[in-house]
Each structure stands twice: as structure tokens, then as C-alpha cells.
Amino acid sequence: MRLRLPWRAAGWRRAGSFEACLFALLPGLLGLAAAQAAASPDTGVRALGRVETRYLLRCGGCHGTQGRSPETNVPSLSGQVGWFLCTAEGRSYLLRLPNVTRAPLSDAELAELMNWVVFRLGGASVPANAQPFTAEEVQAARARPLLSTTLVADRQEIVSSLMQRCSAPASLAAYGRNRGGGDAVLRVR
Q1: Which residues does residue 177 pair with via DSSP β-bridges, in sequence order?
Q2: Higher pLDDT residue, 38 or 87?
Q3: Average pLDDT score over residue span 57-74
Q4: Residue 103 near residue 133, CB atoms below 8 Å
Q5: Cα 105 to Cα 116: distance, rounded to the nearest angstrom
Q6: What is the DSSP string of the chain?
Q7: CB of 166 closer than 8 Å to CB of 86
Q8: Is the pLDDT of residue 18 over 90?
Q9: What is the biggest distance separating any 2 CA atoms in the chain, rounded to whole angstroms?
Q10: Residue 73: its pLDDT value, please?
Q11: Looking at per-residue confidence, does 150 or 9 come out higher?
Q12: pLDDT of amino acid 17
């Protein structure tokens, strides 16, 4: 059975070229309509920025769209991640995490993303004298990623130091404890 389009049934001569133009323009028209709807002030929906979109695509699936996640799965970032900028070890740890070092982003894009994570999601946990990450710092960290089989234990050691040296809250240590109260071990290959 062959589909009879209205313009063919009406006997239009060059229907094939009309169809081609319609189907070629359709994605663009839909994109334009979506962009206009996103930019429209009366929709009540805020358009996401480039960095926030990267966070949602690269990190938000595990860490949550607003940086809140179940502590038994992955660390929550909201109101906590800024504490890691209190020490050189904590700062380095964030950039050397396996999924951070392997992110398919340029060094500059990754620095921008990590700054958004720390300064936006970290909120009040960010030390007053904290400096933003640079592309050069990201490049150096990528050259020596954390590949330890005891990544959670390494994190707990850094968190312990943050609690002692920077008065970080005990809630920062919640990640890595399973329901039985023991420490979990993440295996990285």
C-alpha cells in the first residue's frame, strides 16, 4: 500500500521536490520553535547554560541534577565539594578522580566544569581564599590519575585531613560506608 500525500492527490506536479524541501526544513523549524520556547519568558522554564548542561550530561546521572545523591552510591556534591579546595591534597584529588581525568573534554572545558561544580554546587563549603582550577592544572592532573583499587579509602584519608585541618563537617565522611557501617572499596581497573 502506497501512501498518498495530499499534494499528490491534488495533482501537484513537482511534489517530490516539495516533499524534499519540507523534510529538509522540518528539523530546523522544530529546533527554532524549541529555541524560541526555551527563550520565551512566559514558559517559566529556565534555559540551561553550557557548563550546567555538561554537568548534567557528564556528572548528573550519578551525582544528581543538583549535586545530591545517595551517599552509599557516590558522594553528594551539594554543600560539600568545596571543602576539598581547603588543602592541596583535596584539590588534587578532585581533578585526579578516574571519571574526571577521562572526561572527553578539553583541559579548559574540564577546568570550567570543575569550577562550576565546586563553586556552584559547593556553595558555603568553598573556602574564602579558594582559587579556580586552570586548564594547566587539569592537564597536570590528567597525567597522574588516581588508579588505586582503594579509592574510597584514599578519599576517607583526605576527608579526615579536611576535618582536622579545615573544620570540615563529619557528614563529608558519609560516603564509603555501606548500610552495614563498614567501608566500601571501589575497584578501578
Answers
A1: 183
A2: 87
A3: 87
A4: no
A5: 14
A6: -----HHHHTT-TTHHHHHHHHHHHHHHHHHHHHHHHHH-GGG--PPPPHHHHHHHHHTHHHH-TTS---TTTS---TTTGGGGGGSHHHHHHHHHSHHHHT-SS-HHHHHHHHHIIIIIISGGGS-TTPPPP-HHHHHHHHTS----TTHHHHHHHHHHHHHHHH---GGGG-TTB-TTSSB------
A7: yes
A8: no
A9: 82
A10: 79
A11: 150
A12: 47
Nearest C-alpha neighbor of 67 from the set 106, 103, 119: 119
* Contact (CB, 8 A) for 155 and 93: yes
What are the sequence ranges of the domains in the chain? 6-43, 50-173
Which residues have C-beta within 8 Å of that of residue 100, sequence separation ≥ 6?
94, 110, 114, 141
Give residue 45's Cα distance to chain centre: 20
What residues pair up with 183 in beta bridges, in sequence order? Answer: 177
**pTM, to two decimals:** 0.70
Q: Which CATH class is domain 50-173?
A: mainly alpha
Q: What is the pLDDT of residues 108-131, one digit of tens each?
A: 999 999 999 999 999 999 999 999
- Mean pLDDT of all residues in 5-28: 47
